[in-house]
Design goal:
59% helix, mainly alpha, 2 helices
């Protein structure tokens, strides 16, 4: 893969993570409101609260797992030069690093800069 394409993929993964992390709570609230209004109409008040609590838990759990998966995909993105994880080394992760933790390639470097 060319470096420019690799950096685009890295930025895309970062945007997906931020969308999940920041937009997720809004999705959880909208999903909860939908479940409460649409499905809650057919349930008695005590069952409605219990069902709503369960729905909120499932939505929040889905958001948390989705965000964790998106973060791992972003952290595990392979460096275009060495092919190892750009910001993950062992159990240490540095999402703000400006260089590959393995080979030192600067973030956003072109193929000519990498030599």
């Amino acid at each position: 893969m060319r470096y420019e394409e690799a950096w685009k993929e890295q930025r895309r993964r970062g945007r997906v993570f931020l969308l999940c992390w920041i937009g997720g709570p809004l999705g959880v609230l909208l999903g909860y409101a939908f479940v409460d209004v649409v499905i809650g109409r057919f349930l008695s008040p005590p069952r409605r609260k219990s069902f709503g609590d369960t729905a909120l838990f499932v939505l929040a759990l889905t958001w948390g797992l989705g965000t964790a998966f998106a973060r791992f995909r972003h952290a595990d993105w392979p460096c275009p030069r060495c092919g190892q994880s750009f910001e993950l080394r062992g159990t240490f992760s540095n999402p703000l690093t400006s260089r590959c933790l393995h080979c030192g390639l600067p973030r956003g470097a072109s193929e000519s800069d990498a030599k």
